[in-house]
Write a structure and sequence with these properties.
With 350 residues, this protein is mostly beta strands. It has one domain: Regulator of chromosome condensation 1/beta-lactamase-inhibitor protein II (Methylamine Dehydrogenase, Chain H, 7 Propeller). The protein is 0% helix and 47% strand. The protein is globular, with a radius of gyration of 18 Å.
């Protein structure tokens, strides 16, 4: 199982060899290589076991190991590593009291996982982003999300999180100042609330202050902050309930998508990528710095099947195990051996 995830200023991938590698910013040891040096090309983490999935947060990273345990490393000031402490970790540590995990998501300073259909979160909880019905400074070990025992997939944003349930619906919890919970309000919720009028959803993605969901028919729905057009509905109007992304032309249906800080990207059925929203650092990959209120298709790599949007950069994984990134690169988060930003995709050094 190959995996890719972009955090604030770093990214990680798992390729066919199953060993995680990371690149980009490393000031909080989020690359897991035992140092605090930024890396402009991928380095292997010190986790000496096979990995099924990686999840990159603000300044921490977690991995789902092949024995279904979870390991985390990096910043831990809010307990986001889940080991019962608030000590930073240069090398991976195992998350306490968590086994048989099937999915993982890393938010800004918190982390969530699904174990036997039950969702658990740990880390900062000032906006109720742990979903346990309370707001508190932090929780350093996994806490069950209230009344959510049928979760299949998770997404974690800046201070909110969402889940796809076994009935293919979406629930969200946490901060809601921009309507990112999709329940028609701007009131934060410390427990899951349903997003109305969404059916047949198989993936949800959480940005800083917006959220998107991908339906089985290829429709992408988004809600929340829209200041740069990251909802893709050809406006900059904040939405407290889902609106469908408006593609400017007839294109193959999306098969994957992800939400960055203030932009969104998708993979289309023909293996190309499309992006929309903020583009101040070239994170849309269309060769410009122009914000886009609707999706624009990238020229360049094809055969893509997975995409992940970070703060102001984006990465995509191809069928051949090759990775491409574009956008901001001040910390080497594009992985191409430089620290120069790129407005079109460049290949990550193998």
């Amino acid at each position: 199982m190959e995996s890719l995830d972009a955090g604030l200023h770093h990214a990680c991938a798992v390729l066919t060899d199953t060993f995680p590698r990371c690149w980009g910013r490393n000031d909080f040891q989020q690359l897991g290589d035992g140092t605090t040096e930024n890396r402009s090309t991928p380095v292997f983490t010190s986790l000496s076991r096979g990995v099924l999935q990686v999840a990159a947060g603000l300044t921490h990273t977690c991995a789902l190991a092949d024995d279904r345990s979870v390991w985390c490393w990096g910043s831990n000031a809010s307990g986001q590593l889940g080991d019962g402490t608030i000590a930073f970790r240069t090398n991976p540590v195992t998350v306490a009291n968590l086994a048989n995990v099937t999915h993982l998501a890393a938010g800004a300073d918190f982390t969530c996982a699904i174990s036997q259909g039950n969702a658990f979160c740990w880390g900062v909880n000032n906006y109720g982003q742990l979903g346990n019905g309370a707001t508190s400074l932090y929780q350093s070990t996994p806490s069950p999300v209230s009344d959510l025992g049928n979760a299949m997939k998770l997404a974690a944003g800046w201070n909110h999180a969402c889940a796809v349930t076994q009935s293919y619906e979406v629930v969200c919890w946490g901060s809601n100042f921009s309507g990112q919970l999709g329940d028609g309000t701007t009131t934060s919720k410390p427990f899951p609330v349903p997003v109305p009028n969404l059916v047949s959803i198989f993936k949800v993605a959480a940005g800083d202050y917006h959220t998107c969901a991908l339906a089985s028919n290829g429709t992408i729905y988004c809600w929340g902050d829209n200041g740069c057009g990251q909802l893709g509905d050809n406006t900059t109007t904040l939405r407290t309930q889902p609106v469908s992304v408006r593609f400017r032309e007839v294109l193959p249906p999306p098969t994957d998508m992800d939400a960055g800080s203030m932009h969104t990207c998708a993979i289309l059925a023909d293996g190309t990528a499309a992006c929309w929203g903020c583009n101040v650092s070239g994170q849309l990959g269309d060769g410009t710095f122009d914000n886009r209120l609707q999706p624009v298709v990238l020229t360049g790599p094809t055969g893509l099947f997975r995409i992940s949007a970070g703060a102001d950069f984006t990465c995509a994984l191809g069928q051949t195990g090759r990775v491409w990134c574009w956008g901001s690169n001040a910390s080497g988060q594009l992985g191409d051996g430089t620290t120069e930003s790129k407005v079109v995709p460049v290949e990550v050094v193998p």
